[in-house]
Design goal:
four-stranded mixed β-sheet; alpha/beta; binds pyridoxal-5'-phosphate; seven-stranded mixed β-sheet; Aspartate Aminotransferase, domain 1; 2 domains; 441 residues; Aspartate Aminotransferase, domain 2
Length: 441
């Protein structure tokens, strides 16, 4: 009997033994191609010597010291690199232990900003349906996935949700992609006017929606309009790049594709490529300065924030991304993987949409390609696909509830940026075999 309280109480998991490059191996010697980076985490692949060495070096000097007493060379160097990578207006990094913490930090920071500037009446967040921002209560409150929220609903903050930008499902027959994007962006304005803009703290969105909607990119012009509305009504724009950031879309920040700059952005998963648990909330100068020149103290903090060893791992990850040209590789290999997926699945009657950007891609599965009717939500399709893929030596990230938290299925792919042509072929082939087994023929 295992004494670990696992994610699922009745699931027999293989035990991991080792990893090398894009492959993981379990204690039975079975090898898996990691086509999802776990959950879009392992951007460098497994066992990268540069990161291991940096962690060892940090452990040999000082593994941990509390941030209430000391700063550290690794956290200072990491924040410097992040400030260099970010647009000129973003110069501060609040370093935490993961994605949910980074989003909690973003929410509290945004609230404190308005308190500092004398607008304590601001208390509402606006976010989007079908988004995911983490599992802690604050982050879950601003998430838009009905299934994840439901059991905890009485405990959650009241958040106003607008539509996602989901052209495959929602674009009208009489509107262009651009018009559709503007229409759904304008839902933010409508919601702001309904709530009263002077009561709103900010708007929260994933530039590319990850786990809950499957690599959903916005239509051109959508985020420009969102930024415009945030500026017009003077609310903060908070972007969640926990999954889509740190190079995964082929730019270090996914918002670079949208030609906008947020006021606050959260990153995490790829930041230390899974070698250590770390997240960061990056903050634009006006927000930071309001606190620095106001109370001088962000009323927050965690025991393991800016942990020197996690920062050393993140520093080595970012240096490796740069030295090995891996953000550009994510763009190039992402195109190759998308082409391979089109080649393999365009003729499938059950793959309705192939989407995403860089090495952040997804297939949306449908029972009927013409009508886009999803498979029955009672089918344990995601579970079956995940299990069958594993048996075939492939890790992928299938999920149900793509459309509204209940209906719809997709498979997310987010392989390491070191992926090469033979791995791409292996992913497409193994996914094909998996879907042939799990879907009706
Ligand atoms: N935000 C997004 C967009 C995510 O995808 C996730 C995790 O999947 C989180 C936040 C939460 O991150 P974590 O699981 O590290 O707490």
């Amino acid at each position: 009997m295992s004494h670990v309280f696992h994610r699922h109480c009745h699931q027999a998991l293989p035990t991991i033994a080792s990893g090398q490059g894009v492959y993981l191996t379990d204690t039975q010697g079975k090898r898996y191609l990691d086509a999802c980076g776990g959950a879009a985490v392992s951007c460098l692949g497994h066992n990268h010597p540069a990161v291991l060495e940096a962690i060892h070096r940090q452990l040999d000097s000082i593994p941990y010291a509390h941030t209430g007493f000391f700063t550290s060379e690794s956290s200072e160097a990491l924040a410097n690199i992040l400030a260099d990578l970010a647009p000129p207006l973003i110069n501060r990094a609040y370093l935490v232990s993961g994605g949910s913490e980074a989003m909690e930090t973003a929410l509290k920071l945004a609230r404190q900003y308005w308190v500092e500037v004398g607008q304590p009446q601001r208390q509402h967040f606006i976010a989007r349906r079908q988004s995911y921002h983490g599992n802690t209560l604050g982050a879950l409150s601003v998430g838009g996935n009905a299934w994840r929220r439901a059991p905890f609903a009485p405990l959650l903050m009241d958040t106003s949700l607008i539509a996602p930008c989901y052209a495959y499902r929602d674009q009208g027959p009489d509107e262009s992609a651009y018009q559709y994007g503007q229409r759904v962006a304008n839902e933010l304005e409508t919601m702001l006017l309904e709530k009263g803009p002077e009561t709103v703290i900010g708007f929260i969105a994933e530039p590319v929606v990850g786990a809950t909607a499957g690599a959903l990119t916005a239509e051109t012009g959508y985020f420009t309009r969102i930024r415009e509305i945030c500026d017009q009504y003077n609310i903060l724009l908070i972007l969640d790049e926990v999954m889509c950031g740190t190079g995964r879309t082929g730019r270090f920040f996914a918002f670079e594709h949208e030609h906008i700059v947020p006021d606050i952005v959260a990153i995490a998963k790829g930041l230390a490529a899974g070698y250590q648990p770390i997240g960061a909330t990056l903050v634009a100068d006006p927000v930071y300065n309001a606190i620095a020149h106001g109370s001088g103290f962000f009323q927050h903090g965690h025991t393991f924030m800016a942990h020197p060893t996690t920062c050393a791992a993140a520093l080595a990850t970012l240096t490796t991304l740069e030295q090995e040209g891996l953000v550009d590789a994510a763009e190039k290999q992402g195109k190759a993987l998308k082409t391979a997926l089109h080649h393999q699945f365009d003729s499938s009657p059950f793959v309705g949409d192939i989407r995403g950007r860089g090495l952040f891609l997804a297939l949306e599965l449908v029972a009927d390609k013409e009508t886009k009717q999803p498979f029955s939500s009672t089918l344990p399709l995601a579970k079956q696909i995940k299990q069958t893929a594993l048996e075939n030596g492939l890790m992928c990230y299938p999920m149900g509830g793509t459309i509204d938290g209940k209906q719809g299925h997709h498979i997310l792919l987010a392989p390491p940026y070191i992926i090469k042509a033979p791995h791409i072929d292996e992913i497409a082939d193994k996914l094909r075999i998996t879907l042939d087994t799990c879907l009706p023929h």
